[in-house]
C-alpha cells in the first residue's frame, strides 16, 4: 500500500500553506499588547481489544516476554529486539503492510474508522473565542478543560543496520473520538524522507489539533526505512496500532518502545488530566545578523522538553504553528536558544493557560526580536452554539 503523504517540515512557513506562520501582522493584537522581555530577563464507549497496550513503564513489566511486535509481522532473523519493561503491545491484525488492519470486523476498527485514511477535519483554535461563555472570575465555566494526550518526542531507539544514517518515511498518527480520523504526529512521504540515525530524535510535525483522551486513543503507525528502488523493497521499521488507555497514569512522562521488523521507535508522551489546547506562533522580527534558533517547550512541572523548531534564520519570518497541550494551573514555558559560532544564549518566557483567548510576549535579543503568541482553546466541540 502506498503511504505517500504531504509533510509539514520544520522551517519557515510557505505562502501557500493553509495554516500560515506567525508574522507581526498575523499575530494581530499581540503587536501592541505583548509583554516584553530582554536578555536580562466524555465518551462512555467501552471497547474490547484483542491485545492492549500497557499504559505505564511500571504496568508494562508483564510484557517482557513479548517482543512488542504484531502477531502478523514476519520474522526477521537479522534483528532480535531486546526484552525491556516498557515495550508497547501492538494490537493483533493491525498490519498495514500485510493488509490485516483493513480486514475483519473488530469493533475498534469500526469505532475508530480505521478504513478511512483521511486526516482529521478539526482544526486547532476552534474554541479560542466561542459564543455563550459563562464567566466565573477570569475563567469560562461553560467550556471546560479535559484530559489530553501530549507528545514530547519520537526517537529512533533501535535499528537493524550496523551504523550510519538511514532514510525514514511514513507516519504516526493519533485517533481519538472527537473525530477518529488521523491526527498526524509525524508524516512524511517516501519522496521526502528524513535522515536519522540510531538514538536521534525524529522530527515531529503535528498534531494538527489537540488530542482528547476521555476515551482510549489509538496510535496508528506505518514507518519504513528506504533501502531499495521500490517501496516493496524497503525495510519495515514499525507497523500497527497500539492503545493509550484513558486510565493511563496522569501528569507524568511515559515512555514506550514500539518494536518492528528492523528496529524500534521510542515515543515519549504524557496524559494530562486537566488541560487545554495551546497553539504557539512565533514571529522573528528585526533580524540583525543570521543565527541558529531552536525552540523548546515545557509543560507544567514536567522536566521533559518538546523540541518545536531547529533551524537557521537569515531574515524576518513567521514559523509554522505548533499545537501543544497545556496543564491548567501550571505554566507553559518556552525556551528560545539563539546561537552563532561557538556561543549561545537561552531566553525563556512563560504563559498561564486559559480556556480561551491568547497571550503574547516579545523577547529582545542581540540578533533579533521575537513575538510569541499562544492561543488557548478547549476541545468541547460537540455544541454548535460554541462557535463564533
TrEMBL record:
Disordered: region residues: 1-97
Domain of life: Eukaryota
Compositional bias per record (Acidic residues), positions renumbered to this chain: 56-77
Annotated DUF6598 domain residues: 148-374
Residue spans of biased composition, Basic and acidic residues class: 1-10, 22-40
InterPro entries for this protein: DUF6598
Protein name (record): DUF6598 domain-containing protein
